Amino acid sequence: xxxxxxxxxxxxxxxxxxxxxxxxxxxxxxxxxxxxxxxxxxxxxxxxxxxxxxxxxxxxxxxxxxxxxxxxxxxxxxxxxxxxxxxxxxxxxxxxxxxxxxxxxxxxxxxxxxxxxxxxxxxxxxxxxxxxxxxxxxxxxxxxxxxxxxxxxxxxxxxxxxxxxxxxxxxxxxxxxxxxxxxxxxxxxxxxxxxxxxxxxxxxxxxxxxxxxxxxxxxxxxxxxxxxxxxxxxxxxxxxxxxxxxxxxxxxxxxxxxx
Length: 259
What we know:
Elements: H1 16-24, H2 29-44, E1 51-55, H3 62-65, E2 82-84, E3 87-90, E4 93-96, E5 102-108, E6 118-124, E7 134-135, E8 146-151, E9 154-158, E10 165-169, E11 175-181, E12 189-193, E13 196-200, E14 210-213, E15 227-234, H4 239-256
Antiparallel strand pairs: 1-15, 2-5, 3-4, 4-15, 5-14, 6-11, 6-15, 7-8, 7-14, 8-9, 9-10, 11-12, 12-13
C-alpha cells in the first residue's frame, strides 16, 4: 500500500502512519494496513489538516492506546492520553467501567476558536445507557465541548457553547457520533448521530479546559462504560467532511479491523 509523505504534519515526522506504528511498537499486518488506509482516506478527503488529534485505539494495551496518530510523540504536548481508574484495554479499543475509569487527552480546546470552529467525534462499539463520552465541561457559563451519546435513552451535546442540544432520542450508542461547529458560525452547531444531523442555535463560549474521555470533563463524575474505538478532535468540518469522516471511520473500525 502506498504511504503518503506529508512533510512536517505529524510532530516532525514525514510518514504519520509509520511514525505512529513505530511509536506504539505495532507490527501486526492487519493493524498496519488499517492505519495506512485511514491516513490515506483522511488525506484524500481533505480532512487530515483539520485534525488536531486522532486516537485509533489499536494494539490492545494502555501503551499502544495512548498515542495520537496526528502527532505520535510520547509527550503530553503531543496530546498523549493518560488513562486513570478502571479502563479495559483490548483489541476493541478502550472501555470504561462507569465508576472511575477515564482518559485525559491533554488537549485543550484553545485552538477551537470561532474562526476555525471545532468538533469532537467518537466511534463506539457497545450499547450502554449512561455516562459521558468526550467533554471539557468546566462550569457555566463556558461549557465548550461536550458529547454524551446516550444517557437515559437520549444524546446531549454542547458545541463550543453554553447551549445544550438534547434530549435527542437515541436507541443505541453504537456507531459514529459527534458535535461540530463550522468555522465562523455563531448561529449554531450540529450533533451527528450515525449520519443524521440536528442543528441547535447557540452562542459561542469556548474555554481552554482539557478534554476528557469517559468522564464529564475536568470536574469529573459522569463516568461512562462505553467502548471507544476511535476518538477525533477537529477544526470545524463541513457537512461533506463530517460525512466523509464517518465513512473513513466505518472503513477503519468495521471493514478493516472487524470490530
